Amino acid sequence: MLANSSAFAEVLNVAAASNFRHTLNKLAADFSIQTGHQLRISNASTGSLYTQIKHGAPFDVYLAADEKHPDLLVSEHLAQAASVYVYAKGRIVLVSNIVPADTCQSVLLSNELKHLSIANPATAPYGLAAKQVLESLSLWSKLKARLVIGENIAQAFQFVYTKNAQAGFVASSMLKMGKEINSVCIWNVPVEMYSPIKQKMVVLSHAKDKVSAQAFQRYMRSYRAKEIIESSGYDVTP
User: Fold this and answer.
1) Rounded Cα–Cα distance for residues 137 and 58 (Å)
2) Which end of the chain has less neighbouring CB within 10 Å, N or C?
3) Above 80 in pLDDT, residue 140?
4) What pLDDT is recorded for position 178?
5) Distance of CA 43 to the CA centre of its chain
6) d(CA 182, CA 23)
7) What is the full DSSP assignment across the chain?
8) What string of DSSP letters covers 202-230?
9) Which structural domains are found in the chain, ordered by start?
10) 167-220 confidence digits (pLDDT tens)
11) What is the pLDDT of residues 36-74, one digit of tens each?
């Protein structure tokens, strides 16, 4: 697909939302085989990475977990409009180690639920989606005092994984990371209950002429990349 030429190999600095870390590691390995270029990856919440970029962090490519922040960078002339691309569409699930009285969704009404984990709705798109789900169920106010807020979706996942929370809203893709949550039940939240999680990537303006950045844009639109992303629990654009 892409010629591998070590003579022109570059290191590309990629800032990626925490939910995409595991998938991006797989993509990075394949991208290196295909092109010879290496990815240097930094992970954090989408909002945190945006703030870092605004303050001059030396990233070349930004893989957000939403549409808003890449679009903001374009409007602020910090990123290239032509490079904007929806590389994945995320989904959220509720995982719990409480035996449900009825469906897994009913765990949210259980007296056994002492701590419910979500990512920070202010900075993490998956956290905002979790808040929207709770609001649509008229449970946000009721459960607010029981929430354990993760800085990002990876930390929200960790709270459930370590059983510091009895249940949590996590990215569906995180159930495919090779880390098994010892959950009693899983609720695949209907996508109609939260705003679509369209994850956009964008190349920052200073990196527009980097050979590796151009190669990465092509790679992320390729069948090989889409196959890896889809197998990791995301939907992709045909």
Assistant:
1) 41
2) C
3) yes
4) 57
5) 10
6) 21
7) -----GGG--EEEEEEEGGGHHHHHHHHHHHHHHHS-EEEEEEE-HHHHHHHHHTT---SEEE-SSSHHHHHHHHTTSB-GGG-EEEEEE-EEEEESSPPSSSGGGGGG-TT---EEEE-TTT-HHHHHHHHHHHHTT-HHHHGGGEEEESSHHHHHHHHHTTSSSEEEEEGGGGGSS-----SEEEE--GGGS--EEEEEEEBGGGTT-HHHHHHHHHHTSHHHHHHHHHTT-B---
8) EEBGGGTT-HHHHHHHHHHTSHHHHHHHH
9) 6-89+196-231 (3.40.190.10), 92-188 (3.40.190.10)
10) 999 999 888 775 566 778 999 999 999 999 999 999 999 999 999 999 999 999
11) 999 999 999 999 999 999 999 999 999 999 999 999 999
Q: What is the pTM of this model?
A: 0.86
Which residue type does 194 have? Y
pLDDT of residue 1: 46
Does residue 24 register a pLDDT over 70?
yes
Contact (Cβ atoms closer than 8 angstroms) between residue 115 and residue 166: yes
Q: For residue 7, which of 36, 40, 39 has the smallest C-alpha distance?
A: 36
